[in-house]
Design goal:
The chain is mainly β. It contains 1 helix and 24 strands. It starts with a helix and ends in a 9-residue tail after the last strand.
Length: 350
């Protein structure tokens, strides 16, 4: 009797499936692997200097995280807590080609046009990016401490919906720069006198923070900084030790900074002494001197409006003009800056 009941139950189930009353997933003989296309939004000129990225090259990588919403049930499809590393390298073909690879491959799975996948990627991989344990949309954070970290941190986020014409096509990840880039240029505008630039540093900056990359309610990428801290320590201390004759100049490398306001003081009270500052040390006639420059008072060239914040994805060059004849005059301006957007095509996970 038990065998007969079992047989009848199986027959009923088979009939329901044949009639289309139940939804099944029958993968095609060649399942569609999830692949990525990686581009970047560039900082202005000199994008390759001091680690600024303008395209992905061999051995570059990013960590990718992914959730999927299938029939209103959310699950993890990529990376768990620490993400999956995707690396750009040569394949093993007869004519080696640079391709993006990761292992093991993940495959698309769709049940309806209302389904979607969320992806968040952080570049470079291996910098401690973690999936945040918070309700809502997929979010990833990366801790950044300017006392130890000085690299071009980039992030990307994308939602793939099941109602597009080809939901299993390549995922476009458009990376954006998450920090600000700051460098110091120094010009000796004296007519006859030389000067030795000893060093420079910054003080009263926002020195640590967590960058957060997620998707908003509409599925668009959203970028922010959280858990930030400001203190009075000297940071980004740079030893120059370079002699500048009259008319000579020095161009520093870029330092990557936590985006922040420059008109906020450390601690309470808003004291001018505790505002973000640049300190320049130089030697003239065997005597060392120091110049203290308040960052909140510096204006772009040709503009009287001070730059009161460092914005994400913007490069700032502070130009210090020194005139030493008959005294010392330090003028600080910035070169013109802009944000340039571009993509690097054809970077696929094969």
């Amino acid at each position: 009797m038990l065998n007969r009941v079992t047989f009848i139950t199986a027959a009923i189930a088979s009939a329901l499936l044949s009639a289309g009353c139940a939804k099944t997933y029958d993968p095609a003989p060649e399942r569609n692997a999830i692949r990525f296309e990686a581009g970047s939004m560039l900082l202005n000129d000199d994008a390759t200097k001091a680690g600024l990225k303008n395209e992905f090259t061999e051995n570059d990588n990013f960590a990718v995280f992914g959730n999927r919403m299938i029939s209103n049930v959310q699950s993890t499809v990529f990376g768990g807590t620490n993400g999956v590393t995707v690396t750009y390298g040569y394949d093993g073909g007869a004519s080696p080609t640079l391709v993006w690879t990761y292992s093991p491959e993940r495959f698309w799975y769709w049940e309806s046009t209302g389904d979607y996948y969320d992806f968040v990627a952080m570049s470079p991989s291996g910098k401690g990016s973690v999936k945040m344990d918070i309700p809502g949309n997929l979010a990833v954070s990366t801790h950044f401490d300017i006392s130890s970290d000085n690299y071009d941190l980039m992030g990307a986020a994308f939602r793939r919906r099941g109602n597009v014409s080809n939901p299993s096509s390549t995922v476009p990840l458009n990376f954006v720069h998450l920090t600000s880039a700051v460098r110091i240029n120094i010009i000796n505008n004296s007519e006859t006198r030389s000067v030795t630039i000893d060093s420079y540093c910054f003080r009263n900056l926002m020195v640590v923070g967590d960058t957060k990359v997620t998707l908003d309610l509409m599925g668009s990428a959203a970028y922010s900084w959280i858990n930030t801290e400001r203190n009075t320590s000297d940071v980004r201390q740079t030893a120059v030790d370079e002699s500048l004759d009259a008319g000579d100049s020095y161009a520093g490398d870029y330092d990557f900074m936590v985006p922040q306001r420059l008109d906020q003081a450390v601690g309470s009270g808003g004291l001018e002494a505790n505002m973000p500052k640049l300190f320049l040390y130089y030697t003239m006639d065997s005597v060392q001197h120091g110049a203290e420059i308040s960052l909140k008072d510096i204006c772009p060239r040709g503009d009287d409006t001070p730059i009161t914040s460092w914005e994400r994805g913007v490069k700032y060059t502070y130009e210090i003009s020194m005139r030493l004849d008959g005294g010392v005059l330090v003028n600080v301006v910035t070169t013109d800056w802009d944000t340039v957007e571009a993509e690097t095509p054809g970077l696929l996970i094969e």
